[in-house]
């Protein structure tokens, strides 16, 4: 019975390709229509997802993917935002600066990415402090941007019901804001 079940599952997923991935296609459309020519940072929780996005997203500028397996994350931060990540190395030419950086949380703490204009949380993280840390890489002193845009890809409505994840994160955000005060909306404008 197990073999029959696995064969059925295999048949169902064999047709799934990146071309039929609605979430990936929506991200590609967002990048093409709204953020071409801007500095964009995409965060995902998983290395496999970061590599998948790198493989299938197209971008007219320089695109790089970074995770814990790539060595020093700071070298990518320097190519994304050389002004705020000084080094004794030669500063990259403007034409060699990364304009689309796909990263795991290896870049969510301790680096300066103020040159960024857009943050996209591809995975909805259960921990709101992670989302705050991600935004904090860009929305900080030294940014020359008047504002930073943050996009959160939320769960499919059916999954949202099943997991109750968004409600749980909402409660955590409320607790954080009660304890340390409000900064800016993390999940939605009405916070």
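Q: What amino acid sequence fits the structure above?
A:
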């Amino acid at each position: 019975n197990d073999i029959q079940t696995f064969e059925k599952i295999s048949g169902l997923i064999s047709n799934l390709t990146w071309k039929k991935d609605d979430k990936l296609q929506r991200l590609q459309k967002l990048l093409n229509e709204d953020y071409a020519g801007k500095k964009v940072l995409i965060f995902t929780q998983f290395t496999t997802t970061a590599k998948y996005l790198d493989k299938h997203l197209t971008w007219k500028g320089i695109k790089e993917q970074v995770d814990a397996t790539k060595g020093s994350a700071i070298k990518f931060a320097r190519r994304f935002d050389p002004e705020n990540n000084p080094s004794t190395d030669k500063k990259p030419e403007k034409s060699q600066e990364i304009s689309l950086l796909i990263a795991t949380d290896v870049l969510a703490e301790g680096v300066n990415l103020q040159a960024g204009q857009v943050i996209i949380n591809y995975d909805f993280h259960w921990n709101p402090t992670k989302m705050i840390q991600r935004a904090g890489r860009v929305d900080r002193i030294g940014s020359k941007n008047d504002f930073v845009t943050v996009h959160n890809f939320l769960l499919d409505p059916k999954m949202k019901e099943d997991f109750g994840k968004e409600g749980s994160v909402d409660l955590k955000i409320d607790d954080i804001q009660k304890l340390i005060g409000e900064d800016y909306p993390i999940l939605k404008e009405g916070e």
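Q: And what stands out in the fold?
A: Residues 127 and 169 are 7 Å apart (CA to CA).
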